[in-house]
Design brief:
With 95 residues, this protein is α+β, with helices and mostly antiparallel strands. It has three helices and five strands, in the order βαβαβββα. Helices cover 26% and strands 36% of the residues. A five-stranded antiparallel sheet has the order 1-5-4-3-2. The chain is globular, with a radius of gyration of 14 Å. It comes from Leucobacter insecticola.
């Protein structure tokens, strides 16, 4: 599992998720907390024959939080709901 925090410049535009929607295995996450904080969130779950990975990104004014987790040999990956909860806790702790 990995968690990355990247600063977002003040005044940066909200990312256009149109390209994300076109990518196989990716979807936008609708979440009232993210939306009320002026952000967007999405998850991508590319898979191979032997392993899978879930990468979830939560973009908020001021910070982008990316969380990734692998799925190998039947062990579950970190799903989007768990990754979103990690992002919420990190942001709420920082406030």
């Amino acid at each position: 599992m990995s968690v990355g925090l990247t600063p977002v410049e003040a005044g940066a535009e909200v990312p256009d998720l149109g390209l994300v929607m076109q990518m196989e295995g990716c979807s936008v996450i609708s979440d009232s907390w993210v939306e009320s904080n002026g952000g967007v969130a999405y998850t991508c779950t590319p898979e191979t024959a032997v392993a899978g990975v879930t990468v979830t990104t939560v973009w908020l004014p001021g910070v982008e939080i990316s969380t990734g987790g692998a799925q190998v040999a039947g062990y579950p990956a970190l799903d989007a709901a768990a990754a979103l909860e990690i992002a919420k806790r990190l942001v709420n702790k920082a406030r």
